[in-house]
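Collaborator request, handled under Task 6.
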Amino acid sequence: MSEAAVITHPGNDTHSSMGSVLIIDDEAAIRESLETLLEMEGYAVESAGSGELGLARIGEHNFDLVLLDLALPDRDGMDLLAEIHAQDPQLSVIMITAYGTVENAVRAMQVGAANFIQKPWDNEKLLADVHAAIARHRAEEENVQLKRALKQRYNFENIVGKSEPMLKIFDLVGQVASSRSTVLLQGESGTGKELIAKAIHLNSPRRDHSFVPVNTGSVPPDLLESTLFGHVKGAFTSAIASKKGLFEVADRGTLFLDEIGTMNLDMQSKILRVLQDRKFMHLGGVHEIQVDVRIIAATNVDLQQQVREGKFREDLFYRLNVITIDLPPLRQRREDIPLLASFFLDRYSKENALALRRITTETLRALMAHSWPGNVRELENVIERAVVLSTEEEIGPDLLPDSIVGRSASFPALQHRRDASLFDIMEDGERRVIIDMLEKCNWNQTDAAERFHVPLSTLNQKIKRLNIEIRRKIKE
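Structure tokens returned to the collaborator:
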């Protein structure tokens, strides 16, 4: 067998569910040894005996991982690593060399290697590293493809999610965007209500006009009326000049009223009048002003409960509740955590002019285990903090707050498994969330499906796929 030969194994599917690997090494014995080891694990394997042939193979096929020798007869391995990443920035590369110095390892990581393995290698460790690198590559590819698909379908620049609840929200946004109807967004703080409101606006006929957000809970009640409706000169002591309100600024566009549940009853009645008549008056004014504004409101409290308690006007509630979109908390869509983490990692690496960081398996395990009371906003802050504090390209658990690292013990099944992949961790997290909900619902699947805001058939499919054993309902 020629050491410069390109070896293709026709029996292997380059789209194997395990993944496809390209080996670039000038030693035939090394290539054959790696091929045998990886094929036995179910990977699709191709190999090349030189750097040039390896680059050619990368240009012809999509691989999940490259195992690259540092010392090649025709090319320097480090230079070749840079060329591979220039050709395919998402492709994972593990360097394999007999010259495994610390300096070479650091240099390989700086150029962009996913890992660094010294010959002779430990088979178990190598397989674990291959498994983790491919899982990370597939998650990054999925993130890129998802963002591209969402941008083609909708103008969703900063919204990431592949979970069924989020996909339903994306579809619902697309359906309601073209209408003039009022939309009420419900969800815990940090779930991305303003992002969804912006997406509705940007996909609507009003996209060329203003999107005006106002957090009604952060504006003092005595200033809120002036903020929304404007005032005339002399309307109050400090009104030294007339000023437009946000309703006028948002004319022909969209006004986003966040935390609308914090408004007092008097202000609620004024908002109701604008919704009904599309007219209002400046504070201290006498002339009615006509506006064409779409209202998107948001709340993190139960407005129906506030109606029952007399804290929120029932007529305003029904005016706002024409179309309701419920945003799930992050703990109910844990499969989105790796995508969101990757998205924020890319954003804050670029913002801080740093090489793109990578999240280790241990870090991802801790992120998946956390309950995320602050939802997506909390995750974003955690990733930004980790990037800013990082001195190396890998984001390890040491860069996470103690409150997050301390909860990783809730995944005992994966705690001591070095071979746990991204998908293992995601499935384990999803399984535990479903079991927790079933236990809360006394193993009533219909109730659990309603709490998850998904059809019963969807929950049953997930239960079957995740091999969750349904316990007999406990009599109350």
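The cover message to the collaborator said: "The chain has a mean pLDDT of 82. The CA atoms of residues 463 and 469 lie 8 Å apart. Please let us know whether this matches your experimental observations."
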